[in-house]
Write a structure and sequence with these properties.
5-stranded antiparallel β-sheet; 3-stranded mixed β-sheet; mainly beta; 7% helix; Immunoglobulin-like; 151 residues
Length: 151
């Protein structure tokens, strides 16, 4: 589990990844909207990363195909990825409450900040698996809801 959370500490890379994704312009579809729920407060920034394969999911953010940073309001946030080509994806999210660009940990690698993934896999020791978090994004777009977990 500690390895997963240490990987997420590379969060500044989220801002370096282009927020608009398309593999083939002829296959571009509407947006992928991710509504994030159960934030314990509106402090800081919510960071979302979009992955198109298991390679790097969820902590190797440099392997994400897109990343966004948004603010929270009323315990919720929304990440909207524009022009995402149809395909299989997974989303990783964390609440950077102190906006320091890192996924902060307590003693023994226990997270201080909230995190979640598409399909809302149950928290367990170690990171969620791509196969548990993946979904099919179609030509009409997708709307997801992710609930954050805090320890």
């Amino acid at each position: 589990m500690r390895k997963f959370f240490i990987c997420l500490s590379a969060a500044p890379l989220l801002l370096a990844v282009d927020g608009n994704v398309s593999r083939d312009e002829s296959l571009v579809s509407p947006s992928l909207r991710v509504d994030i729920r159960k934030l314990r407060n509106d402090k800081g920034i919510v960071r979302c990363a979009l992955f198109d394969s298991a390679a790097g999911f969820p902590g190797k953010l440099e392997k994400a195909v897109a990343g966004l940073a948004v603010t929270a309001r009323d315990g919720q946030a929304r990440c909207e990825f524009e022009a995402v080509a149809p395909g299989r994806y997974a989303v990783a999210v964390f609440h950077d409450e102190n906006a320091n660009g890192k996924f902060d940990l307590k003693l023994y690698g226990v997270p201080k900040e909230g995190y979640g993934a598409s399909n809302n896999p149950k928290p367990r020791v170690g990171p969620p698996r791509f196969n548990d978090a993946h979904f099919e994004h179609g030509e009409r777009g997708s709307n997801l809801q992710i609930e954050l977990h805090y320890w």
